[in-house]
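Comment thread on ticket #2218

A.B. wrote:
> Attaching the input chain for the structure job we discussed in standup.
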Amino acid sequence: MSSREIVSPFVASSYSGGGSANECVEVARTADGGRAVRDSKDRDGGTQFYGPGAWAGFIGAVKAGSFGP
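C.D. wrote:
> Ran it. Output below, let me know if you need it in another format.
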């Protein structure tokens, strides 16, 4: 289970579209080394929490190009 204690400020993704795209997520660190993720357009809409292992797996898949065309 991931920690729900957020220990850093939320930071907007550097890959967000900007301008009129409005497709942006914000990420913060959690006490257990995982991450908290929320929608920058709807900050009160909920936050998803990922433990360190799940976050590392996601980042590894992104770097491997698993989500690209």
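A.B. wrote:
> Thanks. Noting for the ticket: The CA atoms of residues 34 and 52 lie 4 Å apart.
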